[in-house]
Amino acid sequence: MDKKPRMLTWADFTPDFPVWKLNPRGCVLATKEMAPGVYGLISSIPGVDNAGFVVGDKGVLVIDAHISLPMARQILARVREVTAKPILYLVNSNYHGDHTFGNCAFPAETLVIQQRETASRTPYIAEEIAFLLPAVKGDAAVFAGVTYRPPDIVFDDHLRIDLGGTVVEVHWFGPANTPGDTITSVPAARVAWTGNVTGGSFGLALESDAPTFLGTLTRLIQTIEVGTLIPGHSAPLGPADLWVYMDYFSRLTNDLKRALREGWTLEETLARIPMAEEFRPPPADPRAPFMEGRHRYNVRRSYLSLTGEL
Ligand SMILES: [Zn+2]
User: Fold this and answer.
1) Residue numbers of the domain that contains 110
2) Nearest to residue 174, comparing CAs of 132, 127, 225, 222?
3) I need a surface site. Which of 72, 117, 205, 244 has the fewest CB within 10 A?
């Protein structure tokens, strides 16, 4: 039996880090056709998970299973509004329960696909429920009926899936938000589901650090022709948003090198690397305090990672 991997807990966060809002009650997933046979499922509640699906001649591939059984059933219902073809594959974009807890509601014929780092963390349902409880305001009933559904296909770097007339590429470019972040791309449509690698005005290096995140973004851009990106938790993005992400993590990486070279403490580093104005949402934007906390998390996490203190 493999050693249990390190999983994130709320003890990893500082009190200034705003808790996510992932409670799906009242959430409606809107079907948006991005290209023929390529559908985004966009949440009606900002911050609550998106999903999506791709329809080929042979069947359907779904991206992400959502946080609860009712939400997974909503995904299945949205697919059935479009096609009666079998749901052949389900890809999880990362290990967290808001992307994987719905797996157990999918038909037995559906093959669940997870990157190896994701697959090593999904068996720990109880730990993950404890982690997500604050994000659903303690509403434990959200997780009713969730059971572990083991993956059928575990991949390391890349899968090419031919759905019949439509090819889907599933990629791992390295850690960014989580160790196993998975990008699902339909090259012919220039549409990709980027999970929690994207979202907000810049990325969140939840379980990596700034240079690692930058490397993952670089490989993504080297490999995929960036058109429309569907993030895990926000409205679709375009290429310009990704260039902003690159800019943010390039600058943060460079600033952290100076911090290390000059021997700054963590507190000095947090004080001397504020969020640059161009990445700051306007004060009226409801995301403004959220992004401030995210930047401080990125600085802190990256500092501790680069100094070997994690
Ligand atoms: Zn998520």
Assistant:
1) 10-239
2) 222
3) 244
